[in-house]
Fold:
Amino acid sequence: MRITRSTALTACLALTAAIFTATLPSTAATPDPVAIAAQPLAGSSNVKVEGSRIILGDAPAAIGSTEIRQRSGLAELAPVRFGAPTSAVVIGYTSGTPDGSSAEVDVRSWAGNRWSEWTAAKAGTPTALPAASDQVQVRIIVSAPSTGAAPWVGDVTVQPTDTTAAPRMTIQAAPLKSHVFATREGLVGGTTANGHVIVSRDHFVALPSRRGLSSAGSGTYSVKVCTATRCAFEPVWDVGPWNTKDDYWNPSATREMWKDLPQGKPEAQAAYQNGYNGGKDQFGRTVANPAGIDLADGVFWDALKLADNSWVDVTYLWTGDGGRGTVSISSGYLNVRNAPNSSGAVVGMAGKSAQVTVECQTTGESVTGSQGTSNVWLRVNAGMYVAKAWVSAGTFGAC
Structure:
C-alpha cells in the first residue's frame, strides 16, 4: 500500500496523542462533599435540632449497663448513596463539647446486603470502609455529665475517597462466636444507650462497644446467646458491662481498645482473672466480675432459664453471612420450640426486632401472625424452630 505524506502525519499525531495521554496523571475530579441534613431518623433518641446542628436533648441523666449516670443522645442520619463504590469516606463536621461533654461521629457502610459495624470518624480524615460500597450512613452520639453541658455536632458532610489504608474489617461465612460470662442487667425503669426504657422481663442485651449498638426498636445488630440446652436471639440495645470501647469479638487489627488481648476475650474478663490493666476497666473502676455481656431480665430468667450469672456462648450475627429473618412482633418475645408446632417444648425465645439465623425451613402447624397465615417453620438452631408467620424472611431450602 502506498502511504501518502498526509496519512503518515495523521498516524504520527495519533500516536503522539496516545503516548501523551497515557503518561499524564489522572485528572478525574474528586466528588464534592455531600451535605447531610440534620434530621434524625426514627430510632434516634434524646436529641434536638437547631439549624444544621444536632444537640443533646433535655432528658434527665439515666443509668444503663455501664452503671455510669449520664445524659446521652443518639441520632442516625439519612443514608447517602454515591454514583460509584468507594473504599473510604471523609466525614466533615463541626462540634462543640463544653464542660466535660463529648461528641462522637460514626460511619457504617452497606456491604454484602447488610450494614457493617459502626466506625468512629475523625473530621476531615479518611475512614476506611469494610468493603467498597456505594452507600454509607452517619451516626452522632452526644453525652454529658448529669447537669449542664449541651454538646453538639453540625454541618455534617460525607465525601468518597480511596486515599486511605486498605479496609481490614470483613464479613465472613460464619459469624464470630465467643464463650463469655453473662450477667443480669436488671435496671428496670432505666434507660439504655439507644434510649430504650427498660421494662420488666425485657428482651435485649448489652455489649461493651457502640460498634454493634442498634437504634431503638431495631435489630440490625443482634446476637444468639446459648446455654447447653437453650438459645435466645436478642437485639443489642445497650452498651456495657464495664467498658464502652471493647469490641472483643473483633481481631486485634480492628479492635478499638485492648488490642493485645486474644480475640474473643473481653477486657473485663482479663482484668478480673489475670489482673490485666491493673484489674480495672477503661474508667479506672476495679472489675468485680468477668462479664462480657449483660442480659435483660426476660433473656436471663425466661429465655435461658438462668438462676445466676453464668458462662454462655454468644454469636454476633452481623459479622457473618447466612440465612436470616427478622422477628416481627409489636412487643415481648417469640417462643423458640423443639418441634415445628405450638405444642413443642419452649427451648428459647427471640425478642422483638431480633435477627434470627435460619438453617432451613420445614412444614408444620399452621399459624397466623404478622406475616399472614403459614404452615412454614424455620429451623434457627439444631432442634429449634420458630413459626415463619411471625418472622419477616425469604424462602429457604428444606430441612
Notes: Residues 30 and 161 are 8 Å apart (CA to CA). The chain has a mean pLDDT of 91. The longest strand covers residues 126-144.
